[in-house]
Amino acid sequence: MYSFKNDYSEGAHPRILSALTKSNLEQTEGYGEDCYTKKAIALLKQKIERYDIDIHLFSGGTQTNLTALSAFLRPHEAVIAPSTGHILVHETGAIEATGHKVISIEVSDGKINTTHIKAVLDAHTDEHMVKPRLVYISNPTEIGSIYTKNELEQISQLCKINNLYLYVDGARLGSALCSAENDLQMSDLGILVDAFYIGGTKNGALLGEALVICHDSLKDDFRFHMKQKGALMAKGRLLGIQFQELFEDGLYFDLAKHANKMADLLKNEISNAGYKFLTHSPTNQIFPILPNWLIEKLQVKYLFYIWTKIDSDSSVIRLVTSWATKEEAVVAFITDLKDLS
Amino acid sequence: MYSFKNDYSEGAHPRILSALTKSNLEQTEGYGEDCYTKKAIALLKQKIERYDIDIHLFSGGTQTNLTALSAFLRPHEAVIAPSTGHILVHETGAIEATGHKVISIEVSDGKINTTHIKAVLDAHTDEHMVKPRLVYISNPTEIGSIYTKNELEQISQLCKINNLYLYVDGARLGSALCSAENDLQMSDLGILVDAFYIGGTKNGALLGEALVICHDSLKDDFRFHMKQKGALMAKGRLLGIQFQELFEDGLYFDLAKHANKMADLLKNEISNAGYKFLTHSPTNQIFPILPNWLIEKLQVKYLFYIWTKIDSDSSVIRLVTSWATKEEAVVAFITDLKDLS
Amino acid sequence: MYSFKNDYSEGAHPRILSALTKSNLEQTEGYGEDCYTKKAIALLKQKIERYDIDIHLFSGGTQTNLTALSAFLRPHEAVIAPSTGHILVHETGAIEATGHKVISIEVSDGKINTTHIKAVLDAHTDEHMVKPRLVYISNPTEIGSIYTKNELEQISQLCKINNLYLYVDGARLGSALCSAENDLQMSDLGILVDAFYIGGTKNGALLGEALVICHDSLKDDFRFHMKQKGALMAKGRLLGIQFQELFEDGLYFDLAKHANKMADLLKNEISNAGYKFLTHSPTNQIFPILPNWLIEKLQVKYLFYIWTKIDSDSSVIRLVTSWATKEEAVVAFITDLKDLS
Amino acid sequence: MYSFKNDYSEGAHPRILSALTKSNLEQTEGYGEDCYTKKAIALLKQKIERYDIDIHLFSGGTQTNLTALSAFLRPHEAVIAPSTGHILVHETGAIEATGHKVISIEVSDGKINTTHIKAVLDAHTDEHMVKPRLVYISNPTEIGSIYTKNELEQISQLCKINNLYLYVDGARLGSALCSAENDLQMSDLGILVDAFYIGGTKNGALLGEALVICHDSLKDDFRFHMKQKGALMAKGRLLGIQFQELFEDGLYFDLAKHANKMADLLKNEISNAGYKFLTHSPTNQIFPILPNWLIEKLQVKYLFYIWTKIDSDSSVIRLVTSWATKEEAVVAFITDLKDLS
């Protein structure tokens, strides 16, 4: 059984394991104050082209989101997020558990726009309601779509005018930035958003997300919040070494490109076979609509999620590729799909 | 500079890195539902000699404590802990951040006893006060002391009678269980306490703590709490593989024994050199009282914490050994100390 | 200017002030352990026809909701509520501030049904999502509609089967129970729901809501939660005396009937004048759709809320009546409306 | 049985009930936006001699404390309080329930000083510990003592230098300010502290505390926090009318003086009878040490709390007087005590 279930089925890229092994017996400071973490942060700043930002390394996405958002907001302040947002559906109420409401905006393509945000602001008028204070988006979204530079600029401008923080969940940021349809640079994020994170776990690391804090007023005492939420790792070097390896010479982007290439291959051939897709996804998650009998046959040899039902005859499946996806597995899948069709 | 600052200065035991490398490209389920995690849990159950317990793997101690305690307690329930307890002083109010008061018991040797607990119960009489519901202890304590089986039995019995949960923070549990003065078995913990965790980070793992839930009423829906607190790791195999390696053939205990042996060596020779200690510690942290001039000279070649001041002439330092501590470094330290004295 | 803005514009029914004055200098126990509170609770139990329930008196609705729901739920458990629910829109995220997500169900008439609840249950399948555990409804709803006995029975049954608690916000419960279209008794609530509250503030009291806990497992230690949330009033007698007065001889229902009668009068005559309503409301809040020019003219003499815009020419206004609404004011309003039309 | 148990055994001062009755049928705005509340706030500003402060009326002390402190602090910030502080012992962990640790300073006379605060600051050095940010004191303290102007000035200065907020719980502030030994004015508080509250419930009101926010940075969005914590009362006029009555012509101070006078009378005569006191209290709570046999005899005719045991023969009782304490009851108590002695 070959798995297209997600992009965290394998361990880490071999270079990361090598780097860990090589440095293993060196003694370093704990809690992210080691030389590897410092080096990784310096590399990331260079990539983002800003040196006045703060960067902190976390072990996972939910942890990053909950630590950041609870640190950024006062008790009565709320988050605006698209209905498909990871924090809304797949983090077991982690943000609410820190005391903050997440206001859901119904979307079909995973993306929110300035009209959505204005509507929320208009509806929240006094102290009997929460105060919207932060806009949460994911890039790519949870259904594979990406924001254009222009879309992000518009959201950013609206946020600035309305005293809203803009936060980007970049669990799969590599895939977005390496998408054929992308026109955003890492350096644009450093200018347009107040904080974002660069996902490592889903792009070659054993674990690790790098939170970038751009807005000055969000920086103070941030390590206190990390420690309080259990996010300050004793052997912080584990994260530093990985991000150093990923960003030293572009490995991060190479891995994302491979994942996207594998997804494109799947997408094109499934399309050629005559099937349609639930969403337009130029990243490493695709959502083909297949007849149920075909899905059942594919399930004999491949693992993937059934995303949703379309009607009594067909369903949407999710196929996820990663840095580790083997081209021969993709080819085999396509062949099987065509043969079975 | 050789560091005796803590037991997380190096990476992982080489066997762990080998195991990670070996399994690296296998595809597994995410979020701790992989075969390695299952195997690790089975090994731990065997070691604890109970098969009706639940075991969950975490990435760090603060995360384990805050997830467990907030899952176990209702909003008005409080924790009783010794004043030296890690949750009281070194976790940035992580437990309070989940809404629970931690009642501090002043202790000098790091250990609480039944008299202490009874005093807290007597002082909490009605709904104008929190309701003490869980006793938190560490074994070994944060200052190196350990609980005897008899002491733990007495606390356990008192807790059962008074409807208090008993929780053991085992960040350095290996060192306690392998101490020359210890008479507790892992299997005793499974009987005497309601939940405890077995620390991996400070005993050879890259990261990892195994939470053991013994009391039935604490088990329900526990993975929801983990996810909500950001503790469910996507590549959960990273924890499973490490605990499997540590418990497959006793590596965990071998490593702890080495750490203790190195600490004993330091302790005996420092004692032979005529110095006293702040606490009686039969585990891998020792607290010698040294003249300040000597401390300053040692600091030229060694890293360690100044624990506390004794008077204008002398201070307590903390020396920590680990699975990775080199005997030659210990010998060198002792030689230097004696030469300088 | 006469106000139809809400049902808390005046003080208390004169009998309540008399009762407060009469008992004023008696010495009683504090924190709700006085004889008046005990008497009030006994009267309420009699009215509900259950003697195995717990009743606690609060000073306001938001306080009641947040104390009850946070006491009833574990950290990962969530509330299901209609999109118009008071806790969703008008309590500044009070429930989320205690750590719990409120899942919103889009409704047009303020009411949720079993289909809605089942859909939420179907969508929440594992530990990556919150666990729906409590259904929150208001009766009457925030837009004036009421639940029939049959509707409530169906919801109740579904909740029991699915291990969901059912909670009714009764801020205006008197108006619902005294509505011409109502077929529910206070005693039905005691059987069908797990907890509900009987609103006093909006029906003649200075302040006060009576929380009724029917389900045994929700009763333990409840006063601890009240104290922790600042809801245990030192001079608890203030609440006891009021509820005693309201329930001694049916005053509570008389007041609600008057409010409903005034609303009916408004509704019928506005309808006669040819206007329509946003919702079907048989209780003390009505929502006529009026041309904007008429609204502006009415605003010269009357206070009321503009609820929402319909189109460029017309809007919905909210008119609220209460125990204190004067019939002559209602008549004057109707006359003015007709004269102006 | 005459009660000296507390200062909230009776209702309200008759003038308050009259004022409530007189205004009862007027229609006003809800949620503290009525004319009475505005008038009360204006009177309080005049008394404090500052017009740039914000004042909010609450229904009780625990509610005031928890709303204020949780609004003022970020998640990692902690409160410093004396071990006898109301928030530490008698509010069921209300502050911790909002996520903040309360650091306890052991005191014998209820008061903390600059040495205490400095010690806490010295012990909290990095992000592994909470960040002390607010000093909570009560005046009078929970055991009747009061702060001198000089003591408060020293604490205030230390707080300013160290970026700590200073907060005064004034549940019985009237009694402190009217004490024969007091040299503080209400206007001094406006200058020396960042926020404080003026207790009404224990000095003649049915319920009500006035929170005064002096520090600009603590003012923003405060009503959001009130609503979120259930502290925004629908009929806010109830609080406004009472504070207007209390501060229109000095009634608040007259009532406190009476309470103090009654306490002095008790204190002097108990002292004359040869008994000692646990603490030096110049306010309305006194703590005589009496033989147990005498306590038992007094309990036949009087209600009061046994505060603590001294030895097997004697205990401390607490006697509390109030605006409502009858001089003849005090005389009777003294007579009985002397007769029984």
UniProtKB/TrEMBL annotation, chains A, B, C, D:
Record keywords: Pyridoxal phosphate
Transmembrane segments: none
Domain Aromatic amino acid beta-eliminating lyase/threonine aldolase: 30-287
Coiled coil: none
Gene Ontology MF terms in the entry: lyase activity
A GO BP entry: amino acid metabolic process
Domain of life of the native organism: Bacteria
Pfam families, alphabetized: Beta_elim_lyase
Statement: the UniProt record of this protein carries the keyword NAD: no
Cofactor(s) listed in the protein's UniProt record: pyridoxal 5'-phosphate
InterPro entries hit by this protein: ArAA_b-elim_lyase/Thr_aldolase, PyrdxlP-dep_Trfase, PyrdxlP-dep_Trfase_major, PyrdxlP-dep_Trfase_small
Family listed: Belongs to the threonine aldolase family.
Protein name: L-threonine aldolase
Species of origin: Sporomusa malonica
